[in-house]
Amino acid sequence: xxxxxxxxxxxxxxxxxxxxxxxxxxxxxxxxxxxxxxxxxxxxxxxxxxxxxxxxxxxxxxxxxxxxxxxxxxxxxxxxxxxxxxxxxxxxxxxxxxxxxxxxxxxxxxxxxxxxxxxxxxxxxxxxxxxxxxxxxxxxxxxxxxxxxxxxxxxxxxxxxxxxxxxxxxxxxxxxxxxxxxxxxxxxxxxxxxxxxxxxxxxxxxxxxxxxxxxxxxxxxxxxxxxxxxxxxxxxxxxxxxxxxxxxxxxxxxxxxxxxxxxxxxxxxxxxxxxxxxxxxxxxxxxxxxxxxxxxxxxxxxxxxxxxxxxxxxxxxxxxxxxxxxxxxxxxxxxxxxxxxxxxxxxxxxxxxxxxxxxxxxxxxxxxxxxxxxxxxxxxxxxxxxxxxxxxxxxxxxxxxxxxxxxxxxxxxxxxxxxxxxxxxxxxxxxxxxxxxxxxxxxxxxxxxxxxxxxxxxxxxxxxxxxxxxxxxxxxxxxxxxxxxxxxxxxxxxxxxxxxxxxxxxxxxxxxxxxxxxxxxxxxxxxxxxxxxxxxxxxxxxxxxxxxxxxxxxxxxxxxxxxxxxxxxxxxxxxxxxxxxxxxxxxxxxxxxxxxxxxxxxxxxxxxxxxxxxxxxxxxxxxxxxxxxxxxxxxxxxxxxxxxxxxxxxxxxxxxxxxxxxxxxxxxxxxxxxxxxxxxxxxxxxxxxxxxxxxxxxxxxxxxxxxxxxxxxxxxxxxxxxxxxxxxxxxxxxxxxxxxxxxxxxxxxxxxxxxxxxxxxxxxxxxxxxxxxxxxxxxxxxxxxxxxxxxxxxxxxxxxxxxxxxxxxxxxxxxxxxxxxxxxxxxxxxxxxxxxxxxxxxxxxxxxxxxxxxxxxxxxxxxxxxxxxxxxxxxxxxxxxxxxxxxx
Length: 888
What we know:
By secondary structure, the chain is of the alpha+beta class. 47% of the residues lie in helices and 15% in strands. Among the domains are: 2-51; 54-157, CATH 2.40.50.140; 311-348 and 381-432, no CATH class; 511-557; 573-874, Metallo-beta-lactamase, Chain A (4-Layer Sandwich), CATH 3.60.15.10.
């Protein structure tokens, strides 16, 4: 089941019986192969149980009854939440949807509504470095998304969990760190601010506020200690009864904690894992810790075959594996040392030279005992007191040695967890927090020993108060006092992470090449345990070499100054058409530098495709210099992300005629400007976004002069706007030619779009924005168009664009429509697509393909699509059902 993540597709239904027969026939002779086929069969069964009927039966407009199971996020006047469908049909798995609702009434978990919603599949924009939403939805068993049109509250029987949350909410709001406590106790992270999330990412401590195996283990251990010692104190027995009762009571407590956390998917997996380990201990199953971990892994995957799609699954089991490895290694090392001491004692004087230190200690002990004996004799202490002292001394030494041993084990576990999980997070998320190692060394023990126990004890105390017949005011007063210790214990944590913005290298973003090298390095470390022979050690060494080579190259690149002309001999360059839904964002990359054409959309204050897609892709590609941001026109789906990008890349030159450009300037505190040139540093102005053109461009004629040296002319005032306007001009960038053009006679935003040609004298790419037929005619009449290899279709494939004269003038080999999957406008229109196909032009749609990358070299180019070439896995496929088209 773990390897099913790497498959391009799952089993078709007709093959299920064949695979089952093969699995059964291999069971005795080849159990590993049998298990692999069985796992694949189970994953396929889970997938078809969830999705097979829904892809064909879910209408675009649907009415259904459902219970709200969790609140996901809020953005301006929109709210997003997950629901569980209530139907008379029995299903092996619950049917879950994710809905969004504009200006809803008060929405609470546990409410049952009759919804009328416009449904769509879980297919989501997908790019390198970006968040894979459809994979995340699959791991949560969410089969469709929807937008609420109408809704009627059927009933709201307040469940016990929600009743407790409602009574705890005013208490938590009165505390300084109530948002974190709310996440720790109830799994509700919605009250954490964007700033807090950023700080958690920078310190690698996000796992501490997400209920996981760590929290459940601490709760289990806390109540196991309480129950075990209470039972031994009041009902002592010599059998295993008290041990078993303590385990059972603690398991019930952990189940209660999971219930309060809403039995989220991640919590369910951690519960299954923990309860499986407890069950094996209760039945006194004779197995090694590794076998128990394997059983727990099997149980989790058998119950939820999609568990391995979640990053939390890998983090949880990796953490347990690291702990078991450390305990096993420490035990082996301790036994080896003890055996060495025993052998030394047996050899006696033959090995005195090897144990001088032990002999010296024995002499000192004897001398100390003699002195003590003399003192005791002098003072005529009784034999009983002397025996008591010797026993005390022996016990003290025993506990001292045990304490030192536990501290050594604790330290070994903590640093291995910090390094190992940090490495895994780098592979899973493409980021690494250098400071996370020492922060987690401090905070994981602090949470385990102090924060979680105090918070849970405070919660239990509050639940007891809810049962007692107390007035609401008195209950809240006492309840706040009970939670005060947990709140105070979070103060060091909040104080520490709040300083993370000032730390050097708070969060390092890794390019894809480094992530691949890290995967090989991690595999080498994993195999090191079994690499006993020289050939295997050579294999491990070879797996680690790429990481160190890539690390060396990255260090030298970061230290070396940016070269102005390193591209004369370099023949390769890339165009990345990003999947930003119904919008446009195109990266032109050469080396570690790039030009961005359009910025995607932004919605509300908390969502922008620039943050969600463009910036992560730039980081994944190792692009550390964004030279130009060209914004074609003012529509939100083209200019919405400019403000965010201007903040991330304050040295980028903006070429734009849009009001979004002025908003970006305001965001970067750029005020009163003058013209200055030839330097990359601003003189006498506030730090902000530079806007300008390359040196050698004449603003009035657009004629290119000497462009062999690529120097940027910096503009620091808006008094000479022509220098950053999109006018007909051509200039050199990184060995490529960039040509701009616009229609000065246009009367609307779409027709005023800034178009751009990028070419290397052999290949040409045309970026068109949202131009319509009138601007297409202007470009044709003024002979501003020429044959091109790759065309970004005007206006996403609308009928208002792509006239026959325009297509003939451009004569593209490949056209790419930047249109969202199943978008409400029905772009690209079928007749427009057919217009290109009749001329032999190949077509692609970004919403269907995901990110589209065109790799150019000196003689040819190759096109790669994310879903079919870059990451061709089954969970990245298109999930589709009926489409409803809105008029243009």
